[in-house]
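Supplementary notes for students who missed Thursday's class. We covered one full example, reproduced here. Read the sequence, then the structure, then the short commentary at the end.
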Amino acid sequence: MSEKQIEEIVARMVEVRMVEVGYSDRHTATIWSVWAKDEIGEKWMGTFNRQEDADELKQTIQNIVRWALKGSERVRENVCRSEVREQLADLMHQIWAGQMTYLFSKCSEYHERGQGVQIPQSWANRWASQLNTPYAKLSEEEKEAGRSEADLVLALLRKAIWPRESK
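Structure (token representation):
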């Protein structure tokens, strides 16, 4: 994303509106409202008695948006590098290998045929139940296992996105 594209987005996203408010039959006051806009709609961010305060909030929001957009470019550049992709693929393989090691530790060998393994019915039932359960409805212990896996991926992405801070 070019600097010009970023600035066009930033300019469209935040607006200060002046409003005349009547608070009695003969008196009005001028206030300034700050609105943030995106593809979903508008969100009121604050109302001020002084335009300078509204402009300051607008500038702050624009700086945050600008920073986020530029940061997303850096993230895309770093994360899409082939070395990061390979590191992530290696990590995913390690996670898969760990899951398979666990699976096979719960299985028994077919002695009749001399090859293969059999998943005990109790484990098959447990895993089938977990497969059909949304994450939000898993037990805390089951969620924690997923979080541990997610932490491994996040650590790798953190290192790719902020290499100096990850040392």
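Commentary. The two ends are 29 Å apart (CA to CA). The longest helix spans residues 51-79. If anything here is unclear, bring it to office hours.
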